[in-house]
Amino acid sequence: SSGINAEWPLRPGEQLADLLTKMCLRASVAGEKLKVEIGPTRHDILHQCDVEEDIAIAYGYNNIPQVLPDLYTIAVEQDVNKLSDSVREELARCGFTEVLTFSLCSRDDVSVNLRIPEAVGGAVQISNPKTFEFQVVRTTLLPGMLKTASCNRNMPLPLKLFEVSDIVVKDTLTETGTKNYRYVCALFAGKTSGFEVVHGLLDRVMLMLDVKDYHIQQTSDPMFFPGRGADIILGTKKIGHLGILHPEVLEKFDVTLPCSVLEFNLDPFV
Description:
The protein has helices at residues 2-5, 12-22, 48-59, 79-93, 142-151, 195-208, 247-252; strands at 26-30, 33-37, 97-98, 104-105, 136-137, 159-170, 178-189, 214-218, 224-234, 237-245, 259-265. By secondary structure, the chain is α+β, with helices and mostly antiparallel strands. A seven-stranded mixed sheet has the order 3-6-7-11-10-9-8, with helices on both faces. Strands 1-2 form a two-stranded antiparallel ribbon. A two-stranded antiparallel ribbon has the order 4-5. It starts with a helix and ends in a 5-residue tail after the last strand.
């Protein structure tokens, strides 16, 4: 409202009250403050900025004088978002379809259903969840991918899905006690497991990122079929995994097709 006040240097408060009256809001000047009463029919007004918006509408956006901001800033895309878009384009070129799943899921989705019951300890809990499906913030993109595959099992095979999004884990070293990581997850579901497909997809993404110092090594992760899972090692650090999902995991998510999955952390490449 500062730009509007400049037009009425003598009685800005009364003029603003008149504008709010046009918007069916009862307003009056109380000293240096403007008192506004919100009627029961204006449930769209929640904050002070909503009242300011009504003032601007009543005055007319085109009538507000344009001024340059005191601060000179230039918007720049964050490196992690720029890299994420590049990876999305590459996965789409490989024939995979992007999905966007919920950031919240049930406790079982990130632990028991993946045959890793202790994993729920690292998940950020929702204090008052509205539904059983929104109890924790996801620590992996896999539950959402499997739910998507379950809901689309009548689609032509194979299903080739991917998602590039954030996961959240507990971190006592941060101010909020949590930390976000940008993850990449791809899932192949068809008449065969398709392990070679996700393995080839990993190689393709690493080629695009111009990364050579990586390899995979067998893992005993219980979410994978015995002997059919591997960790992704970048240098000497594990950044993800890939493999054929265990039948018990598929059963928990009501998926009737053999599935292979690839998931890794994208942050080390930023």
